[in-house]
Design a protein that fits this description.
- The protein has a two-stranded antiparallel ribbon with strand order 1-2.
- Strand 1 (about 105-110) and strand 2 form a beta hairpin.
- Helix 2 packs across helix 4 (about 55-70) and helix 4 crosses helix 5.
- It starts with a helix and ends in a 5-residue tail after the last strand.
- Helices cover about 50% and strands about 5% of the residues.
- The longest helix has 17 residues, at about 80-100.
- The radius of gyration is 14 Å and the shape is globular.
- It is built from 5 helices and 2 strands.
- The model has no long low-confidence stretch (mean pLDDT about 85).
- By secondary structure, it is mostly helical.
């Protein structure tokens, strides 16, 4: 495994807030911080909120964090419609990934994101 990847895993395994700030320049609101830290602690987390509060950005950060800090991860992303999945969530992931410090580690396509060299 790549040394840079091992450093990511060691440094950010249990702190997605630090990962978001350091690697993505994403500075979460307090409620987003709580959700991210809950994701690091618990296997199931739910979020209830209104529209336009930052859920999609939060989801994007959580997905990128998980892909970068877990060996051989799989994240299944779903949405009520294909348009929401591809045009909203996927676009948000691409936005945060392309300006991140981990962009070179992950490969983004229209249907998949994976660690370079570990396509499957």
């Amino acid at each position: 495994m790549d040394k840079a990847l091992l450093t990511l895993i060691d440094s950010y395994w249990d702190n997605p807030v630090w990962f978001a700030e350091d690697m993505l320049d994403f500075y979460p609101d307090p409620w987003q911080e709580k959700v991210l830290m809950d994701l690091a602690k618990y296997s199931k987390v739910t979020v209830r909120s209104g529209q336009g509060v930052g859920k999609t950005g939060l989801e994007s950060v959580a997905i990128i964090w998980y892909l970068c800090t877990r060996p051989f991860p799989k994240v299944v992303a779903t949405a009520p419609t294909r348009q929401q999945l591809y045009d909203v969530l996927w676009a948000e992931i691409a936005k945060w990934l392309t300006k991140s410090k981990v962009e070179r580690l992950l490969k983004w396509t229209k249907t998949k994101i994976y660690m370079e060299g570990y396509e499957e």
